[in-house]
Amino acid sequence: MSKATGVEVLDMIRAALEAAARRTPGLERVGVLATRGTRSTGLYERAGARLGLDVAQVPTAVQEEYVDAAIRAVKGGADPGRPERWIATAAESLKEQGAQAVIAACTEIPLISAAAARVLPLIDSTEALAEAAVARLWQPAEPVRTLVRTG
């Protein structure tokens, strides 16, 4: 999109994967906890492949029983205790698949991720994007080119 518009666009998925790699030395396989919609796009898998990372998703049964249920519970204002255990169970599933870190790839999961963060290093994708934005602010801007016509 940046090339097409000439406007710099920060990529949250890339930012989250890069944050996972920075926080987990030797990272080769990262798990993603996300909505079914995010999973179905394959965006994390494609971005991971470009960065040399293998991306793991929870099995469909774990997605339905634990991840989807936890997201619904948070949206519904439920007590966070059970949903937090469900997300930790999903993180355990990713760890069993060889994931060395996990990305919380939706806005609800970080709210109930404390137990999951004890299973695997956990990266909040929104926080990673905010960090990328702040880091970008400190980078020098490209010089502005002006064209002056004479005569």
Characterization of this structure:
The chain is α/β, with parallel strands linked by helices. The protein is built from 8 helices and 4 strands, in the order ααβααβααβαβα. It has a 4-stranded parallel sheet, sandwiched between helices. Strand 3 (about 100-105), helix 7 (about 115-120) and strand 4 form a beta-alpha-beta unit. The longest helix has 16 residues, at about 60-75. The model has no long low-confidence stretch (mean pLDDT about 90).
Mean model confidence by pLDDT = 92
The shape, in one word, is globular
Helix/strand-derived category reads alpha/beta
**Strand and helix order:** HHEHHEHHEHEH
Low-confidence stretches: none
Question: Numbering strands along the chain, what is their spatial order in the largest sheet?
Answer: 2-1-3-4
**Percent in helix:** 40-55%
Q: Biggest β-sheet, characterized?
A: 4 strands, parallel
Binned strand content: 5-15%
Distance between the termini: 38 Å
Number of DSSP helices?
A: 8
Radius of gyration: 18 Å
Secondary structure: number of strands? 4
